[in-house]
Structures are given as C-alpha cells and as structure tokens.
C-alpha cells in the first residue's frame, strides 16, 4: 500500500520583491542566522533546533516564534522512509471551519529586498485519516496556489511575506517547513511589487523532487540536490537525471558569472553541462502544473550557457534556440563563450505542453550544450494590502492584548478574510484603511495602547465591557476621523480629556464613558471631589490591613514562644490510604538533628547520587542499617519547596514499590530526608553505567522492573502460580487489591497524585532487582476526580517531559504515562532518551524506535547487552505499548491500569518459562484477564479494598486460597 504512495517530493518556488515594511507579528523569538536565513521545521517541539545535514549545518528551528495557532503532529511510521529529511517528520496542522485562515509571519532582516520563500508540505498520514487534504496557500493578501495533496508520501515544496493556509473544507491545512532566503538586489528583476515568480512543478517519475531548476552534474543516477553552500542563496537545484542520448562535460576552472545576476562567484552550478551523444540537438519538454497554471498563465524560461572546453580554431559550437518550434535567437546564431556564463530568457504563454530544442547549425562541428535551466510561472500580485501604518498598529494591539480571534495575516485583505471586529475602506487605487475597531467584551486589560492613535482613518472605536484601567489618553482627542468612542464598563480613572468632552458637546463625537467608577467626565470639580473620596478609601484600605497584620504577628509570636522547645513530628497519620499489600514500615518517621546526620554519614563522606534539590549520601543508623540521606542544597531556589513537597508525600504514601521514608531533618539552615537504601542503585546505571557491563539486565529482569514500577511483580507472580494449579480458574470474577507503583499513585491515593518526574534515575533497585519509585519533590495533587487535568508550570526532565504538558502547562495522569513510555523504550533499547545517531546529531528515542519498527528492524533496537536472549514477540509488544504511551494527544494514551495489563501479557510467557511451567499445551494457557483491576467507581473500589476479603476458589479439591488486605 505504502510503496506506491511514497512518490518522491515535489517543489514549487516563489520569488518576491518587498518595498513596504514587514508586519510585526504577534509572536516572538524569530531566529534569523548570520546569513539572513530563516529556516523553520514546523511541528517540532518549542525551542527545539538542529543542524540540517543536507545543507551542511543550516540551523532549523521550531515554528513557535512565527505563529501562535495550530497543533503539532508526527508523520506516521510507514511514511517515515529512510533518507527522508528531518523537516518532513513533523507537521503543524490547523483544524477549523471552511474559510478559516492560519498565517505565519516572517520578518526578514532587510526591508525592500527580494526574497525566496519556500513552503514544504508532506502529509505522511499524520492524522491517521488517510484523507488527502486540499487547501489554498496565500502569500500576504494574494492567493498563491491550491495545495492538492495527491499522495501521502510525497513532499510538496512551494518556494514563494506572510504565508497563510486557508481551509477549503476539504481537510485540515498543514505545513512541514518554511524557509526564507534573501536574494541579490539584481537577481530575477521580473519579480516586482506587482508580480512574483513561482517555481513551476514538472512531474518526472524518476526524480527525487519535481521542481524546474536543474543542473547537469553527474552522477545523475542519484538525482542529487544541490543547495547551500553549493548555491549561496540556498536554491534547490536538482540533477536532470540520466538521459541515454546525453553526456556531460565539466571543468575545474571557475566560470565567470559577472554577466548574469542569478549567480554568486562562489557557485559551481555552471561548471558542468549536458551535451548530446552522436546527435546534433538537445530536446526536452515540460508541462504546466495544474496547481497554479492554466492556458492564460505566463511562464519565464531561463537557460544558462557557458563553454567549458577550450576549442581549437577549427572547432565550432553553434546552435539555434527553439521554443515550441519558434526560434528565440532570430537570425543571430548562438555560440556560448568560453568560461563566461550567459543567460538567455524569454516569456512563454501557457499551453498544454512546451518543447525546448537546442539545434546545431549546419556549420557547427560540435553539438549544443546546456549548463542549467529554470522555469517559473508569473503570478500577478493584484490584491492591495492594508496601509502600513494601520497594519503595524493593529499587529501591536494584537500583541499587547494577546488577542486571538481570527487575527492573522493582513487585517483587511483579502476582503473575505478581514479580521473580526474590523471594518475597512477599500479603493481601487490604493491600500485599504481601517475605519472601525470593535473590541467590546474582548477581555482587554491594562491601559489604552497608544497604537490606537496611529489609525488615522478610524471613525469608530468600541472598547466597552473590558477591564481597561488607567487614564483616558489625550491622543484619542487628536484622532482626526474619530466620530464614535465607547469606553463604558471598564476600570478607567481620572478626568476625561477636555477636548473629548468638547467634541461630545458640539456633536462631532459620540462618547460613552459610563460604568467607570473612578472616571470623571463632568468637569474638573467633580473629579477633584471623586479623587478625595478615592484617597480616603485608599487610606482605610492600607492602614486597616497593616494594623490587623501587626496584631496577628504579635499573637503568632507569643504562640511560637510557648512551643519553642517542642519538636514537630511528621507522621503518616495524614495518609489518605494505605495500600493493602504494603509491608509495615520498619522505622517510624523520626526527626534527626543535623549533628546526627553528620554522624550517620561519617561527615557526608560517600556521595551516592544527586537528587532534584541536592546530593544523596550513604548513611547508617545506630543498628547498622544502611540509609540514603538526601540533603537540600543551600543554593537552589526551589529546594525548600521541593523538600517540603517530598516530605509531605512520603508521610502519606506507603507501599512496596515506592521508597519508604525513615525520617527527616528540619533545622534553620539544614533540610534533609532519610529513606531506605536501595543496594541495586538506579535503573539508569544498571542499563548504561558501570553495572551494565558486568551484570547486564536480562529481558525477564527488565520486564519485572517495568511491572514493579507500574504495578507489583511479586503479586502478579503469586497469582499466576495459583492460576496454574487450576485450568478452570477465572480470576476476573474477583477484585484484586494490587494498586501499586504509578498505578497506586493514580488510582489508590485519595486525592490522586501525579509524579511528574518519572525517569530511569528515579527508579531505584534493591539487591534482588525489586524496583521502587523515588524522588517525589515535583509531585502534584490531582484533587478532583472529575477534572481531566490541572494547570501548572512545566517541570520535569527533558526527554521524559510530556510535550502536551510542556506546551499547554496542563498536566494529567497521562503525563506520567508518557514518561513511563520513554522508560519502557530505554528498557528495550538500553539507549538514553536522546539517541546519538552521528557525531553532531541525536534524536528523541520514540522517533528512533518508530523509524526502526516501520521497516521491521526489531532486532536493531533491542539492547545488545541482552545477547539476543529474549522473545521477539514480547519485545515487539512492549515496544508498541511504549509508543502508545507517548501518543499525542494525551487522551489517546492508555491509563496505567491498561499499561499494567499489557505488561502482564508480555511477562507471562517469560515468567512461565523461568518457573519451568512453559508448555504449548492448552491446559497451561494463562487467562490474563484474571489480573485486571476492578473498574467500578472510585468510591466503590475504595470500599472494596478496605473491607473485603478476596477469595480465589480452586475448583476440584475444595481448597480455598484467601488474599486479604494487609493489616491497617
């Protein structure tokens, strides 16, 4: 299915001439490199960037600084073919109603110059709909092209400064990449303020890309693309390909390009040329692209010639140039100059097909040559944009008040896409002007921005029903065309400018200012009275709270003096729920002094790790039991907060797969936590550190660790043994009290908890590889069971951080699921979250795994340290589970309960084999639904966990196995 769909990419180019100032976008942080290049990979994570290998390191950045609309998507693995450029792996797409417009705003360094704008589209079934979209692409206010995606595996590249995608109701518009490249002042003079040049598509089945800019370097069999630095302007030049009747000639001597403006002296594009073999002419044909062209379209054909061989006095290379059988060069026969480039160009009117022929004359002793050629369609730029002053003012207003609406691209043009709330005046001879701005009930706050005063033709301004504050600015009285001004129902204060009041009085301005409690619009005397009243209120508002605060401070100080010598003990009495399977703590949470910590750690001698807010040291209690002592760093600003958070949570959560707290130290200058010591170190070290070389983890052990982190391996093993003793046992008829690991935090704790920092360094191992989750300093309470998320500032570790959480600051239990999916991929591959693929480049582990799985290379991702000792189907199943965990959007990810069930299904064959039960006989088939969790409402499930005796009845001999909750 996909082989046929994966057609090679297609390209179209646009050259522009800009004379007006650029629009100030409502987004920030645009990256422009030292060459003036803007290179955007649409859909990658915010702040991400990388060096593109095909362009010798041009830096591609996220599109976050160029647009504030749309969603990110990833190309599906079947279309992630080998050799595909990184910018095709992600897209930004724009779901919405037909007729909606989504715009990128590019801000070039130099105004008034010519620019190449290249837009790239690679569908790759990113949305899983397998529905090829059709949408319009606008450049500024002019329609550029209709993007008609006819193949999910084909890249469409349109080189065209605002780029807008318009929904036609035939699928969501999307985009993969955007490039902006400054050109020389004299290059392509046909690109003017009234017309642009669009690179014409020429579909050729054998070509990697299909755009009409060709060179004749060999080996052409690779269809290699030349771009920066081969072309200093980063134009994409494609090899024309192998033509049986042609050969090529090259030179190592520089070709003089001073006679043409299209090339820089450093370019080597023209150092090679095509010439026919045993023939006297070169022929090629081309057809217009239906995307942008019709019979009325005009095309620009550019042919480049330079003689590359030093000819003898008797040799002559002479030929005629024919287009559609009409001679271009008239009676003057054409002879290319030695090592001196020349450009022959001409406009051609549209038709179904065109033929270009270079035909040797009868006097010629050598066949014709062709060094390169380009074909463009000429696009009239007939739409007039909004005048610069109005457009810049509205962009500033949009940014200041963070207005979304449909405020993208040009405010007034095209007329069908004018911004909501604006009325514009259109003329046939000049740019549009804004006459009405209606922003009533738009959530505006702060002062009235001075940019409103730049709208010289504004007649009506409605700012009512907002939260605007401060003074009414004087510039409103100086706006020459303003006839209606509504400032009612805001929080404005002070006097209304006298000129505005005069205009209202003489009837030249309709002014509304009611419902502004502190605004005076009836003269200075009334305003002075109001100000005195406000001052009295302010005095009362300030003095009374200060007096109350002082009294409270005195009372608090007296209370503290009484309890000065009492120690505050943090206990587990506030635990919302103890897991039934958890063992009783060996130690009670006790308070230690800093002196005791120094003693138990031998003056902090042995550092065994670094936590989220400080170092971790090995210590020993009085009875010799080892403990881990985590000390809060004095230099971290978040240490106090994370310390308190971790201590609070450790006192209320208790079970075997979460580290147990032994005690704490809380003195004025010293904060510390003491918890059980895990002899096996952390999972990261066991996968990739020193321990991985001497005692690498087996696949069985890795699955056990995964299940411990998510659930409870030992409980699953016991249940599996019970199940094996009866072939008729149906465990799913009973409730199993086994909420542990991350599942325990999400489901059993009341209120539920989100860890927020699940990673391999926070999974600790005992000597027998029992896994426990640690480091709860970033944990958040998910207090309301009916809420789908909470909003908080992004925190966690890059590589494990949920992109949805990072982009929206909205967190849910699915954020932990994402991080756990990354951990699963590490267990499979032994690789870190950022997989190194070259000396200069690394990619996120999910993308790397997807690439390998898309071509069936499961063995290439499995950790070599396992020595091939694993069940391929089991590894594949866990890999698919891990990729499900990192799906975007988050609602498509499984819950931890579902993850647990999948892990059990993967672990069961390995576990049976290790216990000697492995058999292909039907009688030993395991019903894994037996271990599923009761999915009744939380209240019901909680009651069952606390009060129910669980019975697993073994049929046949009458015996009963009882599983009871642990003592409470």
TrEMBL record:
<keyword id="KW-1015">Disulfide bond</keyword>
<dbReference type="Pfam" id="PF13855">
    <property type="entry name" value="LRR_8"/>
</dbReference>
<dbReference type="InterPro" id="IPR008271">
    <property type="entry name" value="Ser/Thr_kinase_AS"/>
</dbReference>
<dbReference type="InterPro" id="IPR001611">
    <property type="entry name" value="Leu-rich_rpt"/>
</dbReference>
<dbReference type="InterPro" id="IPR024788">
    <property type="entry name" value="Malectin-like_Carb-bd_dom"/>
</dbReference>
<keyword id="KW-0677">Repeat</keyword>
<dbReference type="InterPro" id="IPR000719">
    <property type="entry name" value="Prot_kinase_dom"/>
</dbReference>
<dbReference type="Pfam" id="PF12819">
    <property type="entry name" value="Malectin_like"/>
</dbReference>
<dbReference type="InterPro" id="IPR017441">
    <property type="entry name" value="Protein_kinase_ATP_BS"/>
</dbReference>
<keyword id="KW-0325">Glycoprotein</keyword>
<feature type="binding site">
    <location>
        <position position="630"/>
    </location>
    <ligand>
        <name>ATP</name>
    </ligand>
</feature>
<feature type="domain" description="Protein kinase">
    <location>
        <begin position="602"/>
        <end position="907"/>
    </location>
</feature>
<keyword id="KW-0433">Leucine-rich repeat</keyword>
<feature type="signal peptide">
    <location>
        <begin position="1"/>
        <end position="29"/>
    </location>
</feature>
<feature type="transmembrane region" description="Helical">
    <location>
        <begin position="537"/>
        <end position="560"/>
    </location>
</feature>
<keyword id="KW-1133">Transmembrane helix</keyword>
<keyword id="KW-0245">EGF-like domain</keyword>
<dbReference type="InterPro" id="IPR011009">
    <property type="entry name" value="Kinase-like_dom_sf"/>
</dbReference>
<dbReference type="GO" id="GO:0005886">
    <property type="term" value="C:plasma membrane"/>
</dbReference>
<dbReference type="Pfam" id="PF07714">
    <property type="entry name" value="PK_Tyr_Ser-Thr"/>
</dbReference>
<keyword id="KW-0547">Nucleotide-binding</keyword>
<keyword id="KW-0472">Membrane</keyword>
<keyword id="KW-0723">Serine/threonine-protein kinase</keyword>
<dbReference type="GO" id="GO:0004674">
    <property type="term" value="F:protein serine/threonine kinase activity"/>
</dbReference>
<dbReference type="InterPro" id="IPR032675">
    <property type="entry name" value="LRR_dom_sf"/>
</dbReference>
<keyword id="KW-0812">Transmembrane</keyword>
<keyword id="KW-0067">ATP-binding</keyword>
<keyword id="KW-0418">Kinase</keyword>
<keyword id="KW-0732">Signal</keyword>
<keyword id="KW-0675">Receptor</keyword>
<dbReference type="InterPro" id="IPR001245">
    <property type="entry name" value="Ser-Thr/Tyr_kinase_cat_dom"/>
</dbReference>
<keyword id="KW-0808">Transferase</keyword>
<dbReference type="GO" id="GO:0005524">
    <property type="term" value="F:ATP binding"/>
</dbReference>
<protein>
    <recommendedName>
        <fullName>non-specific serine/threonine protein kinase</fullName>
        <ecNumber>2.7.11.1</ecNumber>
    </recommendedName>
</protein>
């Amino acid at each position: 299915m996909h082989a046929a769909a994966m057609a090679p990419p297609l390209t179209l180019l646009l050259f522009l001439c800009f004379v007006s100032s650029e629009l100030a976008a409502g987004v920030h942080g645009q990256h422009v490199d030292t060459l003036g290049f803007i290179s955007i990979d649409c859909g990658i994570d915010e702040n991400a960037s990388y060096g593109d290998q095909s362009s010798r390191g041009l830096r591609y950045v996220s599109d976050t600084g160029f647009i504030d609309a749309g969603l990110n998507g990833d190309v599906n693995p079947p279309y992630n073919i080998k050799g595909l450029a990184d910018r095709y792996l992600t897209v930004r797409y724009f779901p919405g109603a037909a007729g909606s417009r989504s715009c990128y705003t590019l801000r070039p360094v130099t105004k008034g110059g010519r620019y190449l704008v290249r837009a790239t589209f690679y569908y790759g079934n990113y949305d899983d709909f397998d529905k090829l979209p059709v949408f319009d692409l606008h450049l500024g206010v002019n329609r550029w092209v209709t993007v008609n995606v006819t193949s999910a595996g084909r890249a469409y590249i349109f080189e065209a400064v605002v780029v807008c995608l318009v929904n036609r109701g035939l699928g969501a518009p999307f985009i993969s990449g955007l490039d902006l490249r400054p050109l020389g002042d004299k290059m392509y003079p046909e690109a003017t303020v009234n017309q642009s040049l669009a690179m014409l598509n020429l579909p050729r089945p054998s070509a990697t890309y299909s755009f009409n800019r060709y060179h004749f370097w060999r080996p052409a069999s690779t269809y290699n693309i030349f771009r920066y630095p081969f072309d200093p302007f980063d134009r994409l030049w494609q090899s024309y390909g192998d033509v049986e009747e042609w050969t090529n000639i090259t030179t190592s001597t520089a070709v003089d390009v001073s006679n043409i403006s299209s090339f820089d002296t450093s370019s080597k594009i023209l150092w090679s040329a095509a010439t026919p073999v045993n023939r006297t002419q070169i022929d090629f044909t081309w057809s217009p692209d239906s995307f942008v062209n019709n019979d009325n379209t005009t095309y620009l054909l550019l042919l480049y010639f330079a003689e590359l061989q030093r000819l003898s006095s008797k040799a002559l290379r002479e030929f005629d140039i024919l287009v559609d059988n009409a001679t271009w060069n008239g009676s003057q026969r054409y002879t290319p100059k030695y090592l001196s480039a020349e450009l022959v160009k001409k406009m051609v009117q549209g038709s179904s097909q065109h033929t270009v022929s270079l035909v040797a004359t009868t006097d010629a002793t050598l066949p014709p040559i062709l060094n390169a050629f380009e074909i463009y369609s000429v696009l009239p730029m007939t739409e007039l944009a909004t005048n610069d002053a109005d457009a810049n003012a509205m962009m500033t207003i949009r940014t200041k008040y963070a207005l979304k609406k449909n405020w993208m691209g040009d405010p007034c043009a095209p007329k069908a896409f004018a911004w909501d709330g604006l009325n514009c005046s259109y003329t046939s001879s000049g740019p549009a002007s804004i006459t009405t701005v209606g922003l009533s009930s738009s959530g505006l706050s702060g002062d009235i921005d001075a940019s409103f005063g730049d709208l010289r033709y504004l007649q009506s301004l409605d700012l009512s029903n907002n939260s605007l504050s401060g003074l009414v600015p004087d510039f409103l009285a100086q706006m020459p065309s303003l006839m209606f001004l509504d400032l009612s129902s805001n929080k404005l204060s002070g006097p209304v400018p006298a000129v505005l009041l005069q205009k209202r009085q003489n009837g030249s301005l309709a002014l509304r200012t009611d419902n502004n409690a502190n605004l005076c619009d009836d003269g200075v005397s009334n305003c002075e009275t109001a100000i005195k009243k406000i001052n009295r209120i302010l005095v009362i508002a300030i003095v009374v709270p200060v007096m109350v605060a002082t009294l409270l401070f005195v009372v608090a100080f007296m209370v503290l003096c009484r309890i000065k010598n009492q120690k505050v003990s943090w206990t587990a009495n506030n635990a919302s729920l103890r897991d039934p399977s958890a063992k009783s703590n060996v130690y009670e949470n006790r308070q230690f002094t800093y002196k005791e910590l120094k003693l138990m750690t031998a003056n902090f001698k042995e550092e065994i790790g670094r936590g989220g807010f400080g170092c971790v040291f090995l210590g020993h209690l009085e009875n010799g039991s080892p403990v881990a002592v985590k000390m809060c760093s004095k230099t971290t600003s978040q240490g106090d907060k994370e310390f308190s958070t971790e201590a609070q949570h450790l006192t209320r959560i208790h079970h075997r797969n979460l580290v147990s707290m032994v005690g704490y130290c809380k003195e004025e200058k010293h904060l510390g936590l003491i918890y059980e010591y895990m002899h096996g170190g952390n999972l990261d070290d066991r996968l990739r550190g020193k321990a991985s070389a001497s005692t690498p983890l087996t696949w069985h052990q890795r699955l056990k660790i995964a299940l411990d982190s998510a659930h409870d391996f030992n409980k699953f093993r016991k249940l599996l043994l019970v199940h094996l003793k009866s072939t008729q046992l149906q465990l799913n008829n009973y409730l199993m009290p086994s909420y542990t690991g991350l599942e325990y935090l999400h489901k059993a704790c009341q209120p539920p908890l989100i860890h927020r920092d699940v990673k391999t360094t926070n999974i600790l191992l005992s000597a027998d590889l029992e896994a426990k989750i640690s480091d709860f300093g970033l944990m958040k309470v998910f207090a309301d069971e009916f809420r789908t998320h909470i909003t908080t500032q992004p925190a966690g570790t890059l590589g494990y951080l949920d992109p949805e959480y990072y982009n929206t600051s909205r967190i849910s239990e699915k954020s932990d699921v994402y991080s756990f999916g990354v951990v699963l991929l590490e267990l499979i591959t032994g690789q870190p979250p950022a997989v190194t693929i070259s000396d200069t480049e690394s990619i996120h582990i999910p993308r790397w795994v997807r690439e390998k799985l898309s071509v069936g290379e499961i063995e290439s991702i499995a950790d070599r340290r396992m020595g091939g000792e694993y069940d391929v189907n089991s590894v594949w199943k866990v890999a698919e589970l891990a990729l499900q965990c990192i799906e975007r959007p988050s609602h498509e990810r499984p819950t931890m309960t579902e993850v647990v069930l999948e892990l059990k299904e993967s672990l069961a064959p390995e576990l049976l084999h290790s216990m000697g039960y492995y058999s292909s006989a039907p009688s030993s088939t395991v019903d894994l639904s037996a271990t599923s969790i009761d999915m009744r409402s939380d209240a019901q499930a909680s009651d069952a966990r606390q009060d129910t005796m669980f019975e697993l009845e073994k049929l046949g001999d009458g015996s009963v196995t009882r599983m009871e909750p642990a003592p409470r």
